[in-house]
Amino acid sequence: MISWVANDNLQTPHGGELIKGESCAPSSSSFTSVDLIPVDSLSPLQRNFFSKMYPSVSSGSMDHSQLQTGLLCLEADSQRTQYPYVTGTSVIAITYKDGILMAADMGGSYGSTLRYKSVERMKAVGKHSILGGSGEISDFQEILRVLDELILYDNMWDDGNTLGPKEVHNYLTRLMYNRRNKFNPLWNSVVLGGVKNGQKYLGMVNMIGVHYEDNHVATGFGNHLARPILRDEWHENLTFEEGVKLLEKCMRVLLYRDRSAVNKLQIAKITEEGVTISPPYSLKTYWEFSAFKNPTVGAEGSW
Amino acid sequence: MTKHQANWSPYDFNGGTCVAIAGADYCVIAADTRMSTGYSILTRDYSKICKLADKCVMASSGFQADVRALQKLLEARHLTYQHQHNKQMTCPAMAQLLSNTLYYKRFFPYYSFNVLGGLDDKGKGCVFTYDAVGSYERVGYSSQGSGAKLIMPFLDNQLKSPSPLLLPAQDAVTPLTEAEAVDLVKTAFASATERDIYTGDKLEIVVLNAEGDRREYMNLRKD
C-alpha cells in the first residue's frame, strides 16, 4: 500500500491547479493559474485571521505573488474537509422481495460527544431512490443539495425521463472520486438504494470513490458487526416484516457494541410505489445480564 | 497529548489477483471476484475483468476507484477510436494506449495492477503485463495483484517459457491447449486462495479465441 503525503506545491498533470498542503509559507514557485478570492468576500472571522497572518496585505503593501500565495493558502485551509466534525455512524441496507429496506440511527457525534440526536440520515432522491449517509453530516447534506439540483435540472427537460437509482449511484461515484482527486473529499460513506422498472438496486460509495453493489451493504461498524448477520440470514425472498426484523436485529447489535450508536432510528422502504421513511422509534434492549451489571466479577485485581 | 483525529489517504488497496495466459490461437484471462479493504471483505462478487475491445480484455487489481476510472477512460478512448477508424482496436494498440494512460498520471498514479490479454492481428494469443505507472512488456503469461507472488513462480515452473534473453527471440506463447490452460489457471487460483487473504470467493475466467469469447466461473474458498 502506498502512503501518500500531500506535497506543498503539487502540480496536477491536468494543468495548472495547485494543491497546498500543511505549510502556509509563501513559496517562490511560479503559478500558472490560481483561483483568487477577493478579500471582500471573506467573512469577518476569516479577514481577522488573515490580517493577523499577513498584516501587510490588508494594508496593501504586499506584492502580487505574496498575495496570491497567502490567499491560496487561506482558501485551501478554510475550505477543505481534512477531518470530520459532526459524524453519523453506520447505515445498513438490504434488498427484499419488493424493493430496498434501509436503516440508520439519528445520532450526530461531535468527536465522542453525542451532539445531535435527531439527524435524518436517510432521504429520498428523485422518485426511485433513497440515500443513506454516514460520516460528516454537513458533507452529507451538501451531497443531498447537489443531488436535488441534479434531479431538478433533469426534470426541466420535461421529457418524461427520470433518473433511476443506477444513474444516481453512478453520479455519486464520480462525484466522490472527483473530490478525492482534488484532495478535497466529501467525508462520507453513502448507501444508495432504489427500484425502477421492477429492477432493484443497492450500492454504496465511500469518500475516496470505492464503490460496489450487493444484496446487503453496511457502512463503518456495520460492515464488521451487521454484515456477518446479513450474510447468514439474508435471502432473496424476504418479506417486508422479515426484512425489518433482520435490520432491527443488526441495529440492536450495533446499539450494544458501537458506542456512537443511539437508540433512536428510522427505517426507510422503497418499492415500485415509492419511498416511505418511518418516524423515529427505539428498540427494546436488555441490560440485565450479570456481566453487564458487574463486569469485573472474577477479574482479579480489577476494580 | 497529541491530537487524535481521523485522517485520510487518497488511496486504498482492495486486493485481487489477475492471471493471463497466451496460447497459439487463444488467450485465457482470469481474476477472482473478492473486493476487500484491510481485513474486511466489502463484497464477494465484483468483476475485475473488463472487455475493452472484441479481442482485448483487461484484468485489474489494486485500488478499485482508480481501476474503475481507468476502465471508463479506456472505454471512452476506444469509442472515439471506433468512430475515427471504423474498426476495433487491436490488442497491441490497446496495450500501448494503456501504458500511455498510466504514465500520464505518473506523479499521481492510478494505483492499479493490470494484465491485458487478447489476440493480435494474426490471431495469436498475446499477454501484456504492467506496473502502476505504465512500464509494460509483451509476455507469454503473467500474473498481477496480491496473489501474483504465489502464482507467478508456479506458472514459471509449469509453463517453462523460453528465456527472453535468447537470440534469436523465441516465441513466448505457451504450448498448452486451451483446456489445459484453463485447468492450470483454476489450479493456480485454488492454491493462491489458500494463502492470500485478498484472493477468494469466486474465479472468473474469460477465454478468447477465433470463435469469440466465453466466460467460466469457479467457486473459491470464502474464508
From TrEMBL, chain A:
Subunit (UniProt): Component of the proteasome complex.
Keyword Nucleus in record: yes
Classification via InterPro entries: Ntn_hydrolases_N, Proteasome_alpha, Proteasome_beta4, Proteasome_bsu_CS, Proteasome_sua/b, Proteasome_suB-type
Coiled coil: none
UniProt GO BP: proteolysis involved in protein catabolic process
Keywords for the protein's UniProt record, in alphabetical order: Cytoplasm, Nucleus, Proteasome
PANTHER family: PROTEASOME SUBUNIT ALPHA/BETA
Family to which the UniProt record says this protein belongs: Belongs to the peptidase T1B family.
Organism for this UniProt entry: Nepenthes gracilis (Slender pitcher plant)
Pfam family for this entry, one: Proteasome
Known role: Component of the proteasome, a multicatalytic proteinase complex which is characterized by its ability to cleave peptides with Arg, Phe, Tyr, Leu, and Glu adjacent to the leaving group at neutral or slightly basic pH. The proteasome has an ATP-dependent proteolytic activity.
Gene3D superfamilies named in the record: Glutamine Phosphoribosylpyrophosphate, subunit 1, domain 1
Places the protein is found: Cytoplasm; Nucleus
GO CC, alphabetical: cytoplasm; nucleus; proteasome core complex
Protein's name according to its UniProt entry: Proteasome subunit beta
TrEMBL record, chain B:
Keywords of this entry: Cytoplasm, Nucleus, Proteasome
Domain of life (superkingdom): Eukaryota
UniProt-listed GO biological process terms: proteolysis involved in protein catabolic process
Main location: cytoplasm
The UniProt record lists the keyword Nucleotide-binding: no
Compartments, as annotated in UniProt: Cytoplasm; Nucleus
Xref: Pfam families: Proteasome
GO cellular component: cytoplasm; nucleus; proteasome core complex
Record-linked PANTHER family: METALLOPROTEASE TLDD (PTHR32194), PROTEASOME SUBUNIT BETA TYPE-1 (PTHR32194:SF2)
The protein's assembly and partners: Component of the proteasome complex.
Entry's family note: Belongs to the peptidase T1B family.
Role description: Component of the proteasome, a multicatalytic proteinase complex which is characterized by its ability to cleave peptides with Arg, Phe, Tyr, Leu, and Glu adjacent to the leaving group at neutral or slightly basic pH. The proteasome has an ATP-dependent proteolytic activity.
Protein name per Swiss-Prot or TrEMBL: Proteasome subunit beta
Originating species: Nepenthes gracilis
Taxon lineage: Eukaryota, Viridiplantae, Streptophyta, Embryophyta, Tracheophyta
